[in-house]
Amino acid sequence: MINIVLFGKPGSGKGTQAEFLKEKYNLMHLSTGDIFRFNIKNETELGKLAKTYMDNGDLVPDEVTIKMLEDTVDKNLDVAGFLFDGFPRTLAQAIELDTFLDSKSWEITATIGLEADDDILVQRILERGKTSGRSDDQDEDKIRHRYQEYNEKTAPLMEFYKKQNKFYPVDGIGSIAEITERLSKVIDNL
């Protein structure tokens, strides 16, 4: 069982690379955004609960997010592993994820951080914003605010995983194929 956490600021290429990695290694790509949308669209109990928080402009509590993730994992036990994208985002979530995986006698195999300069990433997102239709991809101030949130809440997780010898930084600048090759080298050597 290979369980990988893919880190990177918005625009770093996590979603693009996750598509390649899930196929190559038979991993289930777990994007918390996709999981939220699925549960809300299908009006699951957890989706309804999450929507009540979102409708009030509040963040969905960790316990709801984690329960959605656990339910998705439990429904997909036939894969070679999981690729976590967008989760964990906080130290509390990382600890909860470790506890959940441990209950199945699994663990995080590696965390991989796609690293790139903020200014390059801002340009990527602004370019993406021309076609994505997402308003938060079209406003540089909002993009930089997302980076500030990432630096404050998610970046500290790198230290958490470094202490476990499970963190691997990867240069996120280059062609899609070059970055995929760098990621594959890390995974192949685990």
UniProtKB/TrEMBL annotation:
Keywords noted in UniProt: ATP-binding, Cytoplasm, Kinase, Nucleotide biosynthesis, Nucleotide-binding, Transferase
GO biological process: AMP salvage
Gene of this entry: adk
Pathway the protein contributes to: Purine metabolism; AMP biosynthesis via salvage pathway; AMP from ADP: step 1/1
Domain of life: Bacteria
Keyword Kinase assigned: yes
E.C. no: 2.7.4.3
UniProt note: domains: Consists of three domains, a large central CORE domain and two small peripheral domains, NMPbind and LID, which undergo movements during catalysis. The LID domain closes over the site of phosphoryl transfer upon ATP binding. Assembling and dissambling the active center during each catalytic cycle provides an effective means to prevent ATP hydrolysis.
Name of the protein described by the UniProt record: Adenylate kinase
A cellular-component GO term for this protein: cytoplasm
Quaternary structure and interacting proteins, as annotated: Monomer.
Cellular compartment(s): Cytoplasm
Residues covered by region (NMP): 31-60
Pfam families listed in its UniProt record: ADK
Assigned protein family: Belongs to the adenylate kinase family.
InterPro entries hit by this protein: Adenylat/UMP-CMP_kin (IPR000850), Adenylat_kinase_CS (IPR033690), P-loop_NTPase (IPR027417)
Residues at which AMP binds: 32, 37, 58-60, 86-89, 93, 134, 146
One GO MF term attached to the UniProt entry: ATP binding
Organism: Flavobacterium nackdongense
Catalytic activity: AMP + ATP = 2 ADP
UniProt: ATP binding residues: 11-16, 128, 174
Physiological role: Catalyzes the reversible transfer of the terminal phosphate group between ATP and AMP. Plays an important role in cellular energy homeostasis and in adenine nucleotide metabolism.
Enzyme class: transferase
